[in-house]
Specification:
Length: 359
């Protein structure tokens, strides 16, 4: 049994990991909203983010290889195009539509609508048999759907175009996270480490999004005084710096999620995600001027009840029936550069393995 000092150290570490995750997750939401207020090319912004993520993933893989002396996995072209391409397409459409929607809607409406992705993740998990059906899931669906309706009903800052974009992004996100879970838990592919997953996804995501960018924003970006028609160097450097910051935040988000999952559990990540939504709405109301009625807040509360019930059910069934997919231990998930003293977490590793659950 761990002594009080070890327990305190682990608690402080876990709180620090949650706050680290919050900094990137909440930060990128507010960053995207802030940037799209003055830079009306969200698809171009997303392409820059994908490029930055790929470069940072490549650098991280090189550092891991130099540290361990073992080369990272590189998939063959046939496996890459057949196995990774569907996930890349779904991922880039989810991210692209989400960023695009910030041109039209508030952070609070975005956050609430994006929370409905749980419904679509649940649906596709049942379709792909990643989750077993049970009658309690009907209650989850009713709570989340009712909460979304109450939140958007007579909202003073409602925009139909942006709402439909986020709702479509949430639907595609259900496909995205289901395919990503399958991709990461196929042991033969060797993509259990999200850094390897991001490295393989970014090039295909760029190629999938580029035609849509050319059709919608290509001409506008080519004549924009903030990018290609810039007359002085400082404005161009400012644009590149602000765009690159989003890519760094996006990479940090994936990295912080992985770090939190590998050092704690999927349940901790799920609960942290629920409180993150609350923090995001409170910050949006306090600093961004988002207006929410009592009915909107009540709808958000109902939706959170549905999400919490879903998390509780997944935890209950995984502990009593075992995970439906191959369980990955914390040792398999950890980055070699970030491994702490193994003795500190020996008791926790023996009690519970880590199962990848993506949100």
């Amino acid at each position: 049994m761990a002594c009080p000092v070890q327990f305190l150290c682990k608690t402080v570490r876990n709180v620090g990991l949650v706050l680290f995750y919050y900094a990137f997750s909440i930060g990128i939401t507010f960053y995207n909203k802030w940037l799209t207020k003055g830079f009306h090319y969200p698809l171009f912004m997303t392409l820059v983010h994908l490029t930055i993520i790929f470069l940072l993933s490549t650098l991280t893989r090189q550092l891991i290889t130099g540290w361990t002396g073992k080369p990272r996995v590189v998939l063959g072209w046939r496996v890459y195009l057949v196995k990774v391409a569907p996930t890349a397409l779904a991922t880039v459409l989810d991210i692209g539509l989400s960023n695009w929607s910030f041109l039209f809607i508030t952070i609070s409406l975005y956050t609430m609508t994006k929370s409905s992705a749980v419904l679509f993740i649940l649906f596709f998990s049942l379709v792909f048999k990643l989750e077993e059906p049970n009658p309690y899931l009907v209650v989850v669906v009713v709570l989340i759907s009712s909460g979304l309706f109450m939140f958007t009903f007579e909202s003073t800052q409602f925009n139909m175009e942006g709402f439909l974009m986020v709702l479509l992004a949430a639907f595609i996100g259900g496909i995205r996270w289901t395919l990503t879970q399958i991709l990461m838990q196929k042991a033969e592919l060797g993509l259990q480490n999200p850094v390897d997953t991001m490295y393989h996804l970014q090039p295909l995501m760029f190629l999938c999004l580029f035609p849509l960018f050319l059709f919608n924003e290509g001409l506008g970006v080519s004549v924009s005084e903030k990018v290609f028609r810039v007359e002085q160097l400082p404005p161009l450097l400012y644009s590149l710096l602000t765009l690159s910051l989003g890519g760094a935040l996006a990479f940090g988000l994936g990295f912080s999620e992985f770090l939190l999952l590998s050092r704690t559990s999927s349940l901790t990540l799920s609960i942290a995600g629920i409180f993150k939504e609350v923090c995001t709405l409170l910050l949006a109301a306090g600093f961004m001027g988002d207006r929410m009625s009592t009915l909107n807040w009540l709808g958000f509360g109902v939706c959170l009840c549905g999400i919490s019930l879903h998390v509780g059910l997944k935890t209950y069934y995984s502990r009593n029936k075992g995970p439906s997919l191959r369980t990955l231990t914390s040792t398999e998930l950890e980055l070699p550069l970030l491994r702490a003293d193994e003795d500190e977490d020996e008791d926790a590793d023996e009690d519970e393995g880590q199962e990848i659950t993506l949100h």
